[in-house]
Amino acid sequence: MSSTLPPGLQGEYEEHVSGGDASRWEIFDKIRHYTNAFIVQGEKILLGHKKRGFAKGMYNGFGGKVEHGETSADAALRELEEEAGIQAPLQHFAVLFFTLEGLESAFYIDIYRAADFSGDIVETDEMRPQWFRFPGSTADLPDIPLEHMWQTDKHWMPLLLSNRQFVGRADYKIVDGETRPVKWWIGKTHAS
Ligand SMILES: COc1nc(N)nc2c1ncn2[C@H]1C[C@H](O)[C@@H](COP(=O)(O)OP(=O)(O)OP(=O)(O)O)O1
């Protein structure tokens, strides 16, 4: 099954969803390592509204570049504290690999997940944190704002919420002035 994985990914996964078969996978020279952390508690998930820089105006988990000399796990903890003011027992959960037309490096993103956290959630210069309810939940919270997230997030968000590990790749291009996925593949762990 691993032979079906797109370049940039490793492991044993079964196809969950794919698209854009008319395109070939983009070739990449350089990879930049990033993290992205999600607090998933009961039937709610904590997301941040990006206030500046890359992907300003979009919602995402909390994360950023892994700095020189730092492990991915250290970077995930640092970015969560810098962007949301909290500490959490983050567990490595998934890997996403993206190329974005116009950027020199591909993104290799370690996704982390935790159910608990400590500290007070605070708005920072970079992110405004907010809780959202799971699809189907009656909690008094807004729905996950998928229309203001990266377009491929809707394919793996159900796996994150249902605690199914996954890997995925998407190649994004500028089409009619909009950044859109032209080819994608998401794989999930085999059912036990
Ligand atoms: C293209 O698809 C993407 N989808 C999702 N869901 N997340 C993505 C995608 N591409 C990048 N990301 C994530 C990876 C990181 O968590 C952030 C980007 O981090 P940022 O550029 O803000 O990194 P910092 O180190 O915080 O940067 P500055 O210190 O320069 O602000 O998006």
Describe the structure concisely for a colleague.
With 192 residues, the chain is mainly β.
Average pLDDT score: 95
Unreliable segments (pLDDT under 50, ≥5 consecutive)? none
Overall number of strands: 9
CATH topology: Nucleoside Triphosphate Pyrophosphohydrolase
Strand content: 35-45%
Major sheet, described briefly?
A: 9 strands, mixed
Tell me the CATH architecture. Answer: Alpha-Beta Complex
Total number of domains: 1
Structural class: mainly beta
Write down the secondary-structure element order. EEEEHEEEHEE
CATH superfamily: Nucleoside Triphosphate Pyrophosphohydrolase
Listed once per kind, the bound small molecules are: ligand LXYW25GO
> Tell me, what is the CATH class?
Alpha Beta
- Share of residues in helices: 10-25%
Rounded to an integer, what's the Rg over CA atoms? 16 Å
The first-to-last residue Cα distance is 16 Å
- Count of individual helical segments: 2
Keywords: Hydrolase, Magnesium, Metal-binding, Nucleus
GO molecular function, one term: dATP diphosphatase activity
Domain Nudix hydrolase: 30-165
Enzyme class: hydrolase
Structure commentary:
There is one protein chain. This protein is mostly beta strands and 192 residues long. It has one domain (27-188): Nucleoside Triphosphate Pyrophosphohydrolase. The chain is 11% helix and 39% strand. The protein contains 2 helices and 9 strands. Strands 1, 2, 3, 4, 5, 6, 7, 8 and 9 form a 9-stranded mixed β-sheet that branches. The longest helix has 13 residues, at 72-84. The radius of gyration is 16 Å and the shape is globular. The structure holds ligand LXYW25GO. The ligand COc1nc(N)nc2c1ncn2[C@H]1C[C@H](O)[C@@H](COP(=O)(O)OP(=O)(O)OP(=O)(O)O)O1 is lined by residues 34, 36, 53-55, 60, 63-65, 98, 100, 107, 109, 150, 153, 172. The ligand COc1nc(N)nc2c1ncn2[C@H]1C[C@H](O)[C@@H](COP(=O)(O)OP(=O)(O)OP(=O)(O)O)O1 binds at residues 34, 36, 53-55, 60, 63-65, 98, 100, 107, 109, 150, 153, 172. It is an enzyme of class 3 (hydrolase). GO terms for molecular function: 8-oxo-7,8-dihydroguanosine triphosphate pyrophosphatase activity; dATP diphosphatase activity; metal ion binding.
